[in-house]
Write a structure and sequence with these properties.
Blueprint: H1 5-13, E1 14-16, E2 24-28, E3 31-35, H2 36-49, E4 58-62, H3 73-87, E5 91-93, H4 100-107, E6 114-117, E7 131-134, H5 137-146, E8 148-152, E9 155-162, H6 171-182, E10 190-195, H7 204-213, E11 221-223, H8 228-236, E12 256-261, E13 268-270, E14 278-280, E15 291-294, H9 302-314, E16 322-325, H10 330-339, H11 341-348, E17 351-352, E18 372-375, E19 391-394, H12 397-406, E20 435-436, E21 466-473, H13 480-483, H14 496-499, H15 511-521, E22 524-529, H16 541-548, E23 551-556, H17 561-570, E24 573-577, E25 591-594, H18 597-602, E26 607-611, E27 616-621, H19 626-634, H20 637-642
Parallel strand pairs: 3-4, 3-6, 4-5, 6-7, 9-10, 9-12, 10-11, 15-16, 15-18, 16-17, 18-19, 21-22, 22-23, 23-24
Antiparallel strand pairs: 1-2, 2-8, 5-20, 13-14, 21-25, 24-27, 25-26, 26-27
Helix pairs in contact: 2-3, 2-5, 6-7, 9-11, 9-12, 16-17
The structure holds alpha-methylisocitric acid and iron/sulfur cluster.
Residues 37-38, 65, 119-121, 134, 361, 379, 486, 536-539 line the site of alpha-methylisocitric acid.
């Protein structure tokens, strides 16, 4: 039978379950990656699982998110990560080596492999023909300890690419186009598979820009075929032997097909405050910009930075724009340092930021009050930049640099400038000296634990009855940046009690205090939310910190994939309304009760909540597998696995 790429890769990895869209399957995980901000909690949980040896082919711990090292916390955390990596035979990519997704693409990703990463942009690896999925830290710890991952077998949407991009129109515009078509919600359980004659015109880094920002669609992952371009990229990285071709059989079946003519793609922009709020750059005039930032795991490849360099060589930057460049990796930085690209950027007045996440997670380069920042990153959620009143516009490198030259959002096709053709180098500069390989022999090593390193929080088994209060009611599309802000709070990621003080900070400064008071009185906290609750990142802290504060259930109109898995892992009940309008029947401060819980869940019976304040019964639903129910009854996955 004809098979598509997703079916081919998954068939090679399936351990149990039926390969049918919507059913629960367990697959073998070949590789895992973590980054520092989610990594400390991942490894604390790995320690709790007490594995004797790793079950994956390759696991790597990157330090890239919080490298500011303001205060002792970061450095201590990085030392903890390094000592743990040694004990468990994990590769360790040191601070300064680059952003996990960029480095993984360069040095470790391989077609046909499965990759599970504690970061939502792990699907970047799909650009190399990997099945690469983002998940919460505990799921990565389990994959390292047991070698597998359980998720919902996806339905596959084919994106059929035709033609070739015109000059000044970029891979970033392709994914923005798809975001315009598919939006940021309603795509849970889907995988995007790219195909068609247009694929061959895109290099691996361009494909990776597209699969990277597929995360913003809310899909499980995105994948490209593995072809001659994949082979050329791997060979140029000195890894030609890891190439295997993968393509869909003709006659493959798809849930649906979306056609995109690359030749018709125009420069696009995601406007504040959602990556799905897409418009044509040509339609927006007079948007004066204060800051332009090139970088992030979406657009910081050698090609991206060389386009920027060749553009600023031809025309000067606008004197009022602060222009920041953050290369994706040390490889990229060295290559542009050696070929003169860096000199061109610095000569033009670029501010060079560390090759790390930095600005993208809001821990530096916060824009000024009410200002406009044009960035090549993937998320423009309110407040994510570190400035609440700033407006973030997401574009390609071409559009961002054109805007830095003109001082306003500017269509690069209008520049009187030659389009820089950047060819992929025949050999990338290979130097893995900042990656510490697993030790051959493990001698007695002490795990380094600074005062910032806490313990994974504990939860109790699900009680028979939840008596609680609606501690907060929020609207649609609440992101994990709303629930658990990053930026300058990032350094508390390893310390749940401290980090929990900031839950819902951008929405309600008093939430944490209120929740803690309830918890101390024995009152359960309930969160009520609208559509697509938990969009964005994989940070399990958005579940662990509420759990620590005594949140027992989240009742939403709908949930996003990674976040709902994190809630279940933390032992928090994710419930939806039987009728969406019933959202109106709950308000902040309402006293509510849910009884007979374990029995109802075990019998997969309908659940209801009684709103005592309003004296009404509200019917609720849940979509939980048998396994999910076991986890929730046990008070979370860690309790369950320990049992
Ligand atoms: C993000 O882009 O939001 C992050 C920061 O990379 C997160 C991970 C985190 O919160 O540490 C993600 O995308 O999963
Ligand atoms: Fe880092 Fe930003 Fe990419 Fe997240 S989206 S991994 S913060 S560069």
């Amino acid at each position: 039978m004809a098979r598509n790429i997703v079916e081919k890769i998954l068939a090679e990895h399936i351990v149990s379950g039926v390969a049918k869209a919507g059913s629960e399957v367990t697959i073998k995980i070949d590789q895992t990656l973590t980054q520092d901000a989610t990594g400390t909690m991942t490894y604390l949980q790995l320690e709790a699982l007490k594995p004797t040896k790793l079950a994956t082919e390759l696991s790597i711990s990157y330090v890239d998110h919080n490298t500011t090292q303001i205060g002792f916390e970061n450095f201590d955390d990085h030392k903890y990560l390094q000592s743990i990596a040694r004990i468990y035979s994990i590769y360790f990519s040191r601070a300064g080596n680059g952003i996990c997704h960029q480095v993984h693409l360069e040095r470790f990703g391989a077609p046909g492999k499965t990759l599970l990463g504690s970061d939502s942009h792990t699907p970047t690896g799909g650009g190399l023909g990997m099945f690469a999925v983002g998940a919460g830290g505990l799921d990565i710890a389990v994959a390292m300890a047991r070698g597998n991952f359980t998720f919902t077998y996806p339905s596959v949407t084919r994106v059929l690419l035709k033609g070739k991009l015109e000059p000044w129109c970029a891979a970033k515009d392709v994914i923005l186009k798809l975001l315009q078509i598919m939006t940021t919600r309603g795509n849970v359980g889907t995988v995007i598979e790219y195909g068609g004659p247009g694929v061959k015109s895109l290099s691996v880094p361009e494909r990776a820009t597209i699969t990277n920002m597929g995360a913003e669609l809310g899909v499980t992952t995105s994948v490209f075929p593995s072809d001659k371009n994949t082979q050329a990229f791997l060979s140029a990285q000195g890894r030609g032997h890891q190439y295997t071709p993968i393509e869909a059989d003709t006659e493959s079946q798809y849930e649906k097909t979306i056609e995109i003519d690359l030749a018709a793609i125009e420069p696009l922009v995601a406007m504040p405050h959602s990556p799905g709020n897409v418009a044509r750059v040509a339609d927006i005039t007079g948007l004066v910009t204060d800051q332009v930032v090139i970088g992030s795991c979406t657009n910081s490849s050698y090609r991206d930075l060389m386009i920027a360099a060749r553009m600023v060589e031809q025309q000067a930057l606008h004197p009022e724009v602060s222009f920041v460049v953050a290369p994706g990796s040390r490889q990229v930085l060295r290559m542009i340092a050696d070929n003169g690209g860096l000199s061109a950027l610095i000569g033009a007045g670029a501010r060079l930021a560390e090759n790390a996440c930095g600005f993208c997670i809001g821990n530096s380069m916060a824009p000024g009050s009410d200002s406009v920042s044009i960035r090549t990153s993937n998320r423009n959620f309110p407040g994510r930049s570190g400035t609440k009143s700033a407006r973030l516009y997401l574009t390609s490198v071409e559009t961002a640099v054109a805007s830095a030259i003109k001082g306003e959002l500017y269509d690069p096709r209008r520049l009187a400038m030659d389009y820089p053709e950047i060819n992929q180098p025949a050999h990338f500069q290979i130097d893995d000296s900042m990656i510490i390989p697993p030790a051959k022999e493990i001698s007695a090593i002490e795990i380094f634990r600074g005062p910032n390193i806490g313990q994974p929080p504990e939860n109790d088994p699900l009680p028979e009855r939840i008596e609680g209060s609606v501690t907060i009611k929020v609207g649609d599309k609440i992101t994990t940046d709303h629930i658990m802000p990053a930026g300058d709070k990032l350094k508390y990621r390893s310390n749940i009690p401290r980090y929990a003080e900031f839950v819902f900070l951008p929405l309600d400064e008093k939430f944490s205090e209120r929740a803690m008071k309830n918890k101390n009185k024995g009152v359960a906290n309930i969160i009520v939310a609208g559509l697509s609750y938990g969009q964005g990142s994989s940070r399990e802290h958005a579940a662990l910190c509420p759990m620590y504060l005594g949140v027992k259930a989240v009742i939403a109109k709908s949930f996003e994939r990674i976040h709902i898995a994190n809630l279940i892992n933390a032992g928090i009940l994710p419930l939806t309304f039987h009728h969406e309008n019933d959202y109106e029947l709950l308000d902040q401060g309402d006293e509510v009760v849910m009884g007979n819980l374990p029995e109802t869940l075990k019998g997969a019976k309908e659940l209801y909540l009684f709103n005592r304040t309003k004296n009404i019964k509200i019917n609720l639903k849940y979509k939980l597998s048998h396994q999910d129910i076991q986890l929730i009854l046990a008070g979370g996955k860690l309790n369950y696995l320990r049992e």
